[in-house]
């Protein structure tokens, strides 16, 4: 089967999990919709993931299948896995046929392996995007079936990988921080004349990041630095009132405004946080999540090596570190400006468009290239 890109009529996007896992999928859906206004876009997710709310909110059709998590140790769930996985593959194949998908694009997570296997069986072109420096099982599988493999980071080792960056939402890639700053300062109740540190643990927050920052409130105030602390829902911190302000928010619906207000970001190094701070040209202090396969440390490696960010281990992220490294940096506009420039040079604002290019190429080549 060979089609031209103008014949793109239906695309199935597979992925899900946290907000960070769904974000590149939604940015890709938006870019597909801009270029092909009539294309049918269907998102395949699994029950219990944040896709259940985030995908319909953005106006895309969502289909859910049961999670079939690959067993990492022999237990009762491992015994049930083959049956669950076969069921997921059958459901994914039925959906690929129902929507007559021209391509299946997988972003990782539980739903991508059944979607990749269904597409392979039905001879539908597969496109893979890996948003972490170390690839997960799903994208490793997908890259065995397809030459159309894109990654957010240049260090990622997958067959056929092309580093295109992370598809980011347009509010981020088109963000003019200077223009939006007055609105951001007013919205969060900040002082327009003081440096601002934005603190976030990623989409779910991180207690281990929150606690030492909250414990350093007095040191921030003494240095004339204000803090916009996005803690994660249910992870709010108590900070006594005082000047300069220390704003505590459970969640930022408008990260574009939060970035516009900030001069420095302290955050976990999830794939999106790294790519977003680079894209908007903000220096960062990354505190990688020390679990999983260590991907968060590697996610930050390029921008840290380029001089756009600092990296500190979870165990070393203490009030002492904040007093000796973070606060002096936040109060040093020249150093922040140099780091901001180095960070911006690492950003890829067009990854959404480049992934759509790759989807078009896969559809136009057909499965004969697989
Ligand atoms: C614990 C966990 O599983 N972490 C993973 C998860 O992180 P997580 O879901 O935290 O995702 P990221 O750190 O990559 O990105 C966070 C996303 O949430 C947005 N945001 C954040 C806070 C807020 O208040 N409002 C808001 O909108 C940010 O703009 C960004 O788009 O997915 C990442 C991308 O695959 C992985 O690298 C992380 O290892």
Automatic annotation (TrEMBL):
Function: Cell wall formation. Catalyzes the transfer of a GlcNAc subunit on undecaprenyl-pyrophosphoryl-MurNAc-pentapeptide (lipid intermediate I) to form undecaprenyl-pyrophosphoryl-MurNAc-(pentapeptide)GlcNAc (lipid intermediate II).
Keywords per UniProt: Cell cycle, Cell division, Cell membrane, Cell shape, Cell wall biogenesis/degradation, Glycosyltransferase, Membrane, Peptidoglycan synthesis, Transferase
Catalytic reactions of this protein: di-trans,octa-cis-undecaprenyl diphospho-N-acetyl-alpha-D-muramoyl-L-alanyl-D-glutamyl-meso-2,6-diaminopimeloyl-D-alanyl-D-alanine + UDP-N-acetyl-alpha-D-glucosamine = di-trans,octa-cis-undecaprenyl diphospho-[N-acetyl-alpha-D-glucosaminyl-(1->4)]-N-acetyl-alpha-D-muramoyl-L-alanyl-D-glutamyl-meso-2,6-diaminopimeloyl-D-alanyl-D-alanine + UDP + H(+)
Residue stretches spanning the membrane: none
Name of the protein: UDP-N-acetylglucosamine--N-acetylmuramyl-(pentapeptide) pyrophosphoryl-undecaprenol N-acetylglucosamine transferase
Glycosyltransferase family 28 N-terminal domain residues: 11-146
Protein source organism: Flexivirga oryzae
Membrane topology category: Peripheral membrane protein
Record-linked InterPro entries: GlcNAc_MurG, Glyco_trans_28_C, GlycoTrans_28_N
Location (main, coarse): membrane
Gene Ontology terms: cellular component: plasma membrane
SUPFAM superfamilies: UDP-Glycosyltransferase/glycogen phosphorylase
Domain Glycosyl transferase family 28 C-terminal: 196-354
Domain of life of the organism encoding this protein: Bacteria
UniProt similarity note: Belongs to the glycosyltransferase 28 family. MurG subfamily.
């Amino acid at each position: 089967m060979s089609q031209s890109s103008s014949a793109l009529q239906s695309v199935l996007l597979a992925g899900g999990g946290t907000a960070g896992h769904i974000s590149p999928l939604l940015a890709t859906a938006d870019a597909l919709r801009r270029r092909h206004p009539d294309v049918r876009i269907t998102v395949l997710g699994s029950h219990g993931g944040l896709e259940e709310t985030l995908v319909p909110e953005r106006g895309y059709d969502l289909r859910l299948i049961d999670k079939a998590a690959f067993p990492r140790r022999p237990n009762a769930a491992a015994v049930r896995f083959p049956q669950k996985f076969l069921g997921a593959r059958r459901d994914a194949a039925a959906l690929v046929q129902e929507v007559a998908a021209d391509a299946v694009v997988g972003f990782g997570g539980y739903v991508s392996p059944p979607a990749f296997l269904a597409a392979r069986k039905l001879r539908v072109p597969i496109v893979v995007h890996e948003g972490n420096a170390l690839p997960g099982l799903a994208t490793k599988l997908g890259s065995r079936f397809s030459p159309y493999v894109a990654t957010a980071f240049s260090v990622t080792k997958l067959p056929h990988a092309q580093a295109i960056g992370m598809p980011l939402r347009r509010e981020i890639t088109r963000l003019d921080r200077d223009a939006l700053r007055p609105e951001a300062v007013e919205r969060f109740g900040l002082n327009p004349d003081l440096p601002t540190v934005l603190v976030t643990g990623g989409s779910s927050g991180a207690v281990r990041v929150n606690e030492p920052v909250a414990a350093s409130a007095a040191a921030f105030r003494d240095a004339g630095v204000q803090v916009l602390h996005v803690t994660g829902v249910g992870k709010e911190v108590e900070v006594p009132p005082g000047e300069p302000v220390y704003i505590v928010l459970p969640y930022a619906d408008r990260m574009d405004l939060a970035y516009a207000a900030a001069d420095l970001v302290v955050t976990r190094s999830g794939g999106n946080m790294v790519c977003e701070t680079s894209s908007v040209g903000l220096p960062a202090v990354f505190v990688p999540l020390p679990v999983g396969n260590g991907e968060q440390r590697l996610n930050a490696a390029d921008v840290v090596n380029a001089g756009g960010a600092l990296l500190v281990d979870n165990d070393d992220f203490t009030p002492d570190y904040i007093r000796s490294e973070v606060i002096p940096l936040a109060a040093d506009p020249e150093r922040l400006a140099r780091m901001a420039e180095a960070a911006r040079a690492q950003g890829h604002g067009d990854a959404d468009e480049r992934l759509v290019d790759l989807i078009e190429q896969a559809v136009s080549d057909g499965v004969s290239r697989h």
